[in-house]
Structure formats: structure tokens, C-alpha cells
Amino acid sequence: MENVVVTNFRAVPAIPPGSNYLSIVSRVRADYRETEDDIKLHSLSLIIKSEVANEAVKSMMVDDLMYSEVTFYKTFIPEVRKLTDLSFTPRFFKTFSTTFSKIIFEDLEERGFVDVNSLLSLDFEHCRLYIVA
Predict the structure, then answer these.
(1) Closest CA to 51 of 64, 35, 39, 40
(2) What does the alpha-carbon distance between residue 92 and residue 98 come to, in Å, rounded to a whole number?
(3) Which InterPro entries match (predicted)?
(4) Sheet containing 5-13: which strands, arranged edge to edge?
(5) What residue segments make up the domains of the chain, in order of their start?
(6) What is the DSSP-derived secondary structure letter of residue 105?
(7) What region does 48 belong to: left with phi over 0, alpha with psi -120 to 50, or beta?
(8) What is the pLDDT of residue 118?
(9) Is this prediction's pTM over 0.85?
């Protein structure tokens, strides 16, 4: 998919403002054709986490946290997937930034997952799934 032609895209906040102090989380929905001559229109929805532009906030280890998150999705999650058939984690797309200023994921909403209030605890079944994984 090197010659993809994006015909339309729309970016909206993926979470309410203030829900994540260290990054901006956007949902980007794109319509594309796999080649210029392709008549079939495809759609894709991604979640993009970008570091905040506020230098005071960035100085609070944002780069280290983003690096840790990239390492988690590139190293830990593939190993978990080898041990279980659960596919509850988003597909991680490689970014070509050396500063880890952006992280790109599959939008799990496309598979029927919903966001939960992060201030609420997990229920027993979700805790059990975490331990099993």
C-alpha cells in the first residue's frame, strides 16, 4: 500500500478535552483508493496520539512516557498475542519519528469496542481477562 490515494479524511477528538494531560488523542477517519486507478473506495479509522505542544507539560517526561508506550505495543503486546488468542489490543502502526511524538493505532471502535470511564475500576471479568493474558 505504498501508492495509496487519500480521497477524504476527517479528524475529531477521540476523548473529551482534559481526559489526557500528556497527549492529544484524535480519531482520524480516511477514505482512500489503493492506487490512482482503483475505483473501489476503502475506509480506515485510526487513533493518533500526539504529544502536547505545551513546553511546560512536555518537560514532565512526555518523551519517556511516549517511548514506554511505543515499547509496550512493539515488544510486550506481540508476546502476549503469542500466548493467547485474545485480540483486545489495537494494532500498532510503525511511526518514522525518532522522538516518538506521535503514536498511531487501529481504532478499536471499528470492532465494537467502547471507551470506558478511566476513573471507574475494572469489573471482575475484565480483571480476570487481564490476569489470563
Answers:
(1) 64
(2) 16
(3) EcKL (IPR004119)
(4) 5-13, 23-33, 42-51, 102-106, 92-93
(5) 5-132
(6) E
(7) beta
(8) 66
(9) no
Amino acid at 14: A
The answer, yes or no, to whether residue 63 has pLDDT greater than 60, is no
Do 107 and 27 meet the contact criterion of CB atoms below 8 Å apart? yes
Neighbouring C-alpha atoms within 13 Å toward the C-beta of 80: 17
Task: With beta carbons less than 8 A apart as the criterion, state whether 125 and 78 touch.
Answer: no
* Alpha helices (H) along the chain: 55-58, 62-71, 77-83, 124-132
More confident residue, 73 or 133: 73
Amino acid at 112: G
Backbone angles phi, psi at 34, to 5 degrees: -70, -25
Q: Residue 105 and residue 89: Cα distance in Å, rounded?
A: 9
Q: Can you name the residues that pair with 45 across neighbouring β-strands? A: 29
- Report the C-alpha gap between 56 and 110 in whole angstroms: 35
Question: Do the Cβ atoms of 103 and 66 come closer than 8 Å?
Answer: yes
What distance in Å separates the CA atoms of residue 69 and residue 74, rounded to the nearest whole number?
9
